[in-house]
Amino acid sequence: MFITATASSVVGLAASEGAKMPLIPHIPELIFGLVMFGILYAVVAKKVVPNLEKAYAERTAAIEGGMKQAEEAQAAAAAAKEQYEAQLAEARAEAARIREDARAQGAEIVAEMRGQAQAEASRITESAHKQIEADRQQASHSLRADVGRLSTDLASRIVGESLHDEARQKGIIDRFLAELEAGDIRPEKVGADAPAGQDA
């Protein structure tokens, strides 16, 4: 409608002005140009613009889909990061617990070994005491026997008769050692240091 009004106004202007406006084209050329422009406009409006709009819509959808996928990927990455951090924290806690368990077990082992060492040392000390006591008793018996034998031999030489009768010897030795242990026998000075009136 706009084209028709423009064409009629141009034709009216050309008719009135005639030869005064040399730039105005001929009417058939103008009509042909306007018709071609209308056809071109219709083709562009019906074929090109819908395709462009369709391509624009697809591109918009692709961009929005890409953004949505990027957001989903980012959310998935954040979730994976949180899961990794949780697993890392759990692994650290597990490692700390294992270290504490190992430290406690080490302390228990050290305490147990110390107790075993003390028990072994006590056993060895007690065994050594028992052995020393047994050796002391054996030495005491051996010494008593040696002292008894020597004193019997000495007494036999002094008295001039044999004191080697076993029962007699045992009685004399036991009596002598008992008096010696009780403190009833005191050593006496013999020889030049003896008091007057005593035999040397």
Give an overview in words:
The protein contains three helices and no strands. It is mostly helical and 200 residues long. The protein is rod-shaped and about 190 Å long. The termini are far apart. 0% of the residues are buried.
Could you provide a short overview of the structure?
This protein is mostly helical and 200 residues long.
What characteristics describe this protein?
200 residues; 0% strand; rod-shaped; mainly alpha
Topology (SSEs and partners):
Blueprint: H1 2-17, H2 27-159, H3 166-182
Poorly predicted runs of 5 or more residues: 196-200
Beta-strand content:
under 5%
Let me know the number of strands. 0
Instruction: Report the average pLDDT across residues.
Output: 78
Q: End-to-end distance, in Å?
A: 180 Å
The SSE order reads HHH
The biggest beta sheet reads: none
- Provide the gyration radius in Å: 69 Å
Structural class: mainly alpha
> Looking at the structure, what is the overall shape?
rod-shaped
What is the percent of helical residues?
A: over 70%
Number of helices in the DSSP assignment: 3
